[in-house]
Amino acid sequence: MFPDLLLHFEIGRKKSILAVKEAMNSNQLIFLVTQKRVKDNDPSKTQIYEFGVLARIKQIISQNGDLMRVLVEGKYRAEVVEYIDDGEFLKAVIVKKEDINQHKNAVSEALIRKAEDLFSEYLSISPKKPVDLILNLESYEEVGKVSDYISSNIILDYKDKQVLLEELDTIQRIKKLIVFLSHENEVINYENELALKIKSSIDKNQKEYILREQIKILSRELNDSSDPVTESEEYKEKLRKLKLPKDTYDKLKKECENFSKVPSGSSEANIIRTYLDTCFSLPWNKSSKDVIDISKTKKILDKGHFGLKDVKNRILEFLSVKKLAPDIKGQIICLVGPPGVGKTTIVKSLAKAMGKKYIRISLGGINDESEIRGHRKTYIGAMPGRIITSIKQAGTNNPLILLDEIDKISEDYHGDPASALLEVLDPEQNCEFYDRYIEVPFDLSNVLFIATANDKESIPAPLYDRMEIIDLCSYTYEEKFHIAKEHLIPKQLKRHGLTKKTFSISDDCINLLIRGYTKEAGVRELERNIAKVMRKSAKKIVEDEEKSVKVELNILKEFLGPVKYKNKKIDDGESVGVVQGLAWTSVGGELLPIEVLPMKGKGDIQITGSLGDVMRESAQLAISYIRSNYLKLGVKRDFYKNMDIHIHAPEGAIPKDGPSAGVTIATALLSSLNNIPVNSDIAMTGEIILKGRVLPIGRLKEKVMAAYINGIKTVIIPAENESDISKIDDVVKKSINFVKADNLSTVFEYALKDFKKNNISKKKK
Ligand code: ADP
After folding, report:
1. pLDDT confidence of residue 571
2. What number is the average pLDDT over the span 248-277?
3. Which of 311, 523, 586 most suits a substitution to test ligand 1, by most atoms within 8 Å of the C-beta?
């Protein structure tokens, strides 16, 4: 309590309450002194200061049980002279103490200003002090009053305040106040600083937490149910369950952590999410149980495919080895043959027999290495390559993967897919196959790879070396007949909701379907035609309410239209200057007729048709041979000078390995020059050299098959190809007469009607 100031406080001690009541009953004056030690509960007169303030009780604000709240106003400083009574309450004689040194001068002014500054600083730094205190201060001018006002409004140790109260010299009083106040300010400043430091260190720890919380809230606001932090935790949980090799684990863990740092919904988050989803959907440790049961496999293969004895045997051998030595990685099997001969379906049957998942990768037209190895995930729309995609699709790490049309891959500026495939197929490397998208190695060593191709010569050499080729050949009519009757028709019946009772087709029709409506190595077109017939029959049954359909020749023609392929060779009969050659294309053997037309001119050679320049060399050789043997062959000496010769190959696809048409051109040329007809039902193949020797050719089996399909009865082949005859199907061999020629004169002898026998061959003998 200081003079001139209002104060309200609570009193609770009985003694004090009695004192207040006594005062209220008389002049309301009361002498207020401070006790020396706070903890004394009932201080005696020695335990209180003697210097205090005489105050007037202005109001008893409330009385609540034992507690009384009073408002007092300080009057003046006073000191106890003598205690009168120490009974119910303390009573004393006091003496008023006047302030001294009250003059107003520069010193007092300066001190006041200093005190005021400190006070305003005090107010600004100490929390929650009403600002109007400083305004009230302005109403005081005397230095003693100023210091009393400030003293009563600051928090100071009560002992210090007592010092200020007891100081009667106002200048000394304000000086002491200044010392206390500046000390107090310093303490407060330091306290504040400390609080700030503590706060910022807490802040730092909390900042991340708060930010994460904010991200959560923001993504919720954006209606994005996923939040990266929990999602990343889920990914990590998945990762722990996968049991991956350490390097792979570390790499994926890092990605999970990256994921938690990017805002969800951002394109980066999507990239990482797709990446992680792809990685986690791979069957790292999931495999199916392999079944190797030779007799069961044999049954399945026989049930699905007619014939194909060699192929089936080879597959069973492969399985037997696998059973005896499961860990040895053998060569990759590659089935080579024209389209539609059952390459794909037989592999599918194998997968079924082995209990493996079957996945087909079509390699046709691939010219980009990334198709195999994937794109880096930083590319827009990046994906893993086809191998990893297939593994993901299979859901097991040991499926059977069919690499279809491996001969159709090509190389360009995008890199070489063949070398990537080589890595896939090489058992030394494929246990750590690296896909650019996945970025971690994946073990492909348990995958069973089987390839197919139409043309083994187009398979890139390094791949070819790794593979074991199994040839599948075009089917004969008889084989096609069996396949149709035993496999295709029952299969299609089911697909069309027909039964043997509701649908039947005569053998004649099947034969006509094969010979008259299809011309192919395999049976695809045949299968399509059978399907067509059944579709039309189904319509008849449903629409025309017929009980069943019996397909006879006339109905077949009604369904499929007029016969497409007639045996033109037989129709054509014998002709001059036209000879049937034989060629091979990737879809099987083909008849390759060649026409030669000499006419008056100046010795030009013109070649037209699908073969173009490939034949020019053969043509030159044939002309030179005939020129040099003009006498024996009965040709006019100067024919090459005054005649233009036009050679034309009207039909067919472009043969893969050259037309092997030397003998054909020579025969056609001689026939036309001498106007001798060529025997009907004859076809030939073979290259020649200048002396007329006939050179061996490749793919005899397929070429002969083409002759057989086209109703040719005699085929002239190079003598050196004799050993290949054994590979030809028995049915074909039975219906074809082979002439083995080692030089052109033998060819002419058999091919040309009435070829004069006074020629080279006779002379030779
Ligand atoms: P590729 O893969 O050789 O081109 P596919 O395996 O696709 O040929 O065969 C085409 C169709 O011919 C399939 O429906 C298949 O069942 C059938 N097929 C081919 N060869 C035979 C066969 N020997 N026995 C039964 N059906 C066959």
Report:
1. 43
2. 84
3. 523
C-alpha distances out from residue 543 to 536, 546, 549, 556, Å: 10, 8, 12, 18
Q: Is the pLDDT of residue 761 over 60?
A: no
- Residues 6 or more apart whose CB falls under 8 angstroms from that of 695 comprise 662, 686, 687, 688, 689, 718, 720
Residue 594 has pLDDT above 70, yes or no: yes
DSSP labels for 650-685? Answer: -SSPPPTT----HHHHHHHHHHHHHT-EEPTTEEE-
| pLDDT tens digits along 384-432 | 999 999 999 999 988 999 999 988 887 777 778 888 888 888 888 888 8
pLDDT band per the 50, 70, 90 thresholds, residue 614: low
Reported confidence tier of residue 763, pLDDT bands at 50, 70, 90: very low
Domain-by-domain residue ranges, the chain?
A: 6-97, 228-280, 294-471, 477-560, 575-764
CATH topology of domain 477-560: Helicase, Ruva Protein; domain 3 (1.10.8)
CATH superfamily, with its number, for domain 6-97: LON domain-like (2.30.130.40)
List residues with catalytic annotation: 660, 703
Token pair, residue 47, equals: 């335990």
- Decide whether any atom of ligand 1 lies within 6 Å of the 308 Cβ: yes
Neighbours of 371 (CB within 10 A): 23
Predicted confidence band of residue 131 (pLDDT cuts 50, 70, 90): low
Distance 229 CA to ligand 1 centre (A): 53
pLDDT for position 84: 82
CA of 468 to the centre of ligand 1 (A): 21
Judged by DSSP in three states, 552 sits in: coil
Distance in Å, CA 340 to ligand 1 centroid: 5
What is the topology classification, in CATH, of domain 294-471?
Answer: Rossmann fold (3.40.50)
Residue appearing with tokens 């060593």 = 445
CA 38 to CA 31: how far, in whole Å? 18
Runs of H (alpha helix) within 222-308 = 228-242, 246-261, 267-281, 294-304
8 Å CB contact between 684 and 691: no
Taking the model in full, what pTM does it have?
A: 0.63
CA 93 from centroid of its chain's CA atoms:
100
Q: Which two tokens stand for residue 713?
A: 């009865």
**Contact criterion met (CB below 8 Å) for 433 and 424:** yes
> Ligand 1 test: best mutation among 343, 345, 363, 471, most atoms within 8 Å of CB?
345
pLDDT at 758: 44
Q: What percent of the chain has a predicted confidence (pLDDT) above 70?
A: 92
616-628 helix and 662-674 helix, angle to the nearest 10 degrees: 50
Hey, whose CA ends up nearest to atom 9 of ligand 1?
Answer: 342
Q: Is there an atom of ligand 1 within 6 Å of 524 CB?
A: yes
At residue 469, φ and ψ (nearest 5 deg) are: -85, 130
Atom of ligand 1 nearest to the CA of 308: 23
Q: Kindly tell me if the per-residue pLDDT of 54 is higher than 90.
A: yes
DSSP designation for 487: I
Which atom of ligand 1 is nearest the CA belonging to 486?
Answer: 25
CA of 304 to the centre of ligand 1 (A): 9
Residue 646 CB partners (closer than 8 Å, separation 6+)? 596, 597, 598, 599, 606, 607, 608
The closest-lying atom of ligand 1 relative to the alpha carbon of residue 307 is 23
Is domain 575-764 annotated with CATH 3.30.230.10? yes
Place of tokens 């200061």: 49
CA of 408 from ligand 1 middle (Å) equals 20
Residue minimizing CA distance to atom 25 of ligand 1:
305
Q: Which residues contact 213 (CB under 8 A, 6 or more apart)?
A: none
Give the model's pLDDT for residue 96.
93
Indicate the average pLDDT of the chain: 84
